[in-house]
Amino acid sequence: MTDQPSISPGGAPDWRDGVIYQVYPRSFADHDGNGVGDLSGIIDHLDHFGPEGLPIEAIWLSPIYPSPGRDLGYDVSDHTKVDPLLGAEADFDRLVAESHRRGIKVILDLVMNHTSDEHPWFVASRASREGPYADFYLWRDPSGWDDEGQPRPPNNWVSFFGGPGWEWVPARRQFYYHTFLVGQPELNWRNPAVEAAQWDMVRGWLARGVDGFRLDVFNAFLKDPELRSNPVLEGGNSPWNRLDHRYDLDQPDFPDLIERFRAIVDEQPGRMTIGELFSRETALAAKYARDHHIVFDWSLMESPWTATAFAAAMDLREETFGPDRWPTMALSNHDRERQATRLSTSVARDREPDRDAIAKAAAVVVFAVRGTAFLYYGEEIGMVDVDIPREEIVDPPALLAGPDFPWYDRSRCRTPMQWTDGPHAGFTTGRPWIRVAPDAHERNVAREATDPDSVFATYRRLLAFRRTAGALQRGLMRRLDSGDPDVLAWLRGSGDEALLVVVSFVGEERAIDVGSIAPGSWAGRVGTHRQPSTVDAGGVLRLRPDEAVILARTGA
Ligand code: GLC
Prior knowledge:
The protein has helices at 25-28, 39-44, 89-101, 120-127, 192-207, 254-265, 282-288, 307-321, 339-344, 355-368, 445-449, 455-468, 470-474, 514-517; strands spanning 19-23, 58-61, 105-110, 139-140, 144-145, 151-152, 166-169, 174-177, 212-215, 272-276, 293-296, 328-329, 372-376, 476-480, 487-494, 497-504, 510-513, 521-527, 540-543, 548-555.
């Protein structure tokens, strides 16, 4: 790539160019006042994404299907329906119609690796070794019997959520495997009937107008046909991390399964899919990425807020994906600490971090790095993690946490959206299912909308600018040496348009000699501050503490 990076292959703008907003339905907005967010609540707030709000391309809804709720919707008892807790079938169709009317696409979260143990498939499967569902799950005979006559599990696989991976069912005299909770039995994707049933379900949602899917833990679908024990590793900090997941993840024939899935989705034009990689390696994310199918990689989400760490992760992504594969960009989701909390507590220097300032700079990174950008609800107002007392924890593995099972309590990042300074932050008229953040009086959409220096105002400016900037939407990316170890700089380019992004990772002023890193004259267009800093006559950009700025070329 030259100084003027060009448009990425594929050329024409498509769904990849926009920003995708993740809604956690239980926590976004409660219409009926029962304390749990619902689909009508989302409809009530669609103007949040309108011209006066956040211009986004799509909303991704965390699971909306009937569920006993042990993993808060990720334990699905019927993939074809809407959870009555969240609304009626007609509410979903109305949400799709209302979103489409506003030019917003709707993406569903498909949990296809496992079901709830209350799913009728599992209820039938558990009851008998005979019948159409007998082989829908990973059932195995014991590997033997111990001295007390107890069955030994078939292999050494464990649960990611803590404890054993195999559960004994006396009625079948067999074990079933579960990567997650006992109540989330693993489907047997090597049974063609399972695959056929899943594709029918996918077609059903496509027919209802859904624009795409996020695939939960998609690289776990296929297991080793012989279910061999995983090799044991030295030194991991939990039973899961002491196994090399050679036989329960990333099987060699898995890419063919992605192709078969894409063929179903491609029966309808322009539909997108995103795989949630349930492994750490960025190389695997790149390997599984396809046209119209992107994959989360975690390198940036796991980086502390230092220029060195972000530079390393950006370079790894660029090298691994190369110009022909398209990455994703996310700094938070429903499983991780909120970015303002995580990044401000990860700063390298001995300073009192300014959380909002870091939240704004992180927003610039999210929208200016190459990749489809994802925004978790509440990040746009700088929401932070909430301390949840143990008796209010709603994340099952968090209750098992201990020295040999470190676990982040995901209740902390799933608290109600803060809309107003009214009761329960305007989220519900009832009693919220999970506590509201104590800072909701000052930190809420209504208040931040009136403050031009708020986190929300910064998000609005950045998103409005991104809509007009082809270079940010689809340009290639080249990192530059800023000359300052605490400041990152990179170019984004598309066609004739070139943008220079400069991000300071420190709470003090810095001067960058832009003239020597990116020839031409540049002017600040948008960034963390209402008036972005710009380059002076001597080619120097003076950055304020924690400032990030996107500059456009103004001449040769
Ligand atoms: C994914 C989801 C997570 C869920 C797990 C099991 O990792 O993001 O929330 O608990 O899958 O479905």
